[in-house]
Amino acid sequence: MKLPRRNFLHLAAGAAALPAVSRFAWAQAYPSRPVRLIVGFAPGGGLDITARLIGQWLSERLGQPFVIENRPGAATNIATEAVVRAPPDGYTVLLVNAANALNATLYDNLNFNFIRDIAPVAGIMRVPSAMVVHPSVPAKTVPEFIAYAKANPGKINMGSAGNGSTPHVFGELFEMMAGVSMVHVPYRGIAPALTDLMAGQLQVYFGALTSSIEYIKAGRLRALAVTTAKRSAALPDLPTLGEFLPGYEASQWYGVGVPKNTPVEIVDKLNKEINAGLVDPRLKARLADLGGIALAGSPADFGKLIAEETEKWSKVIRAANIKPE
What we know:
About 45% of the residues lie in helices and about 20% in strands. It is α/β, with parallel strands linked by helices. Strands 1, 2, 3, 4, 5, 6, 7, 8, 9 and 10 form a ten-stranded mixed beta sheet that branches. Strand 5 (about 155-160), helix 7 and strand 6 (about 185) form a beta-alpha-beta unit. Helix 2 crosses helix 10 and helix 4 (about 100-105) crosses helix 12. The N and C termini lie far apart (about 70 Å).
């Protein structure tokens, strides 16, 4: 049977629209089963706690469990690759953090390209770090510390959570901008570095405020500055490093990503719900307890942050010739 041209075109247009309609309906029904939220660190740390808070919020809002799956190892690369290889259906989600931006330059043999293979969904928060020293260090301010370091080149031990970790690169940026030379001492994690700092075997550390704030308040460590562009509400009298080294800014940050080619409708749904959480008084207060500053915005905003951070830290890593352990 030969259809009139008008009827044929009408049917053809309807057929062409079917995939879009079914995809929209699929996205509208999302999620219809539990979602895995992959975290590249062991349970108990700041990233894990953040993932559990966001996972609980999304579970309540979307009616399906967001199950936290910890996959530590290889500086978060194991977790990231697991999400890169997952089906792009919104049921495998990655807790993104600053390590992902550092690893793009730090590792030469990754089986993925983070910016290409992970689609940004939403930022969650920035976490200030603090420049802390052992009380035996005579410097009480950043300018005094710079003068002390210049008078004692190569005699100040700077601890970190490992080669290429955020405390390491934050300290290297400080060295470059302040014109000082310190001895980098890498540890396998934050806890042993802080232990040796409080024991006086290290003199300085650039670590997340969430890890050191109780020691600062107890007088076991002395904070000289926060690393973010703005002061922290948790320690409002503590200056920023940028007040003494104009342009210095460094922070840990957390967000959410999914495999590339995940339907935009699913990305937008997750973005909308995460942003709603960042203004919810209860969740906002919990994130503030972790020292976090809300990082709301669109997927494009979060993607821009990732690209800028990747470029910024690539220069530091190359200039300092940092290699993974």
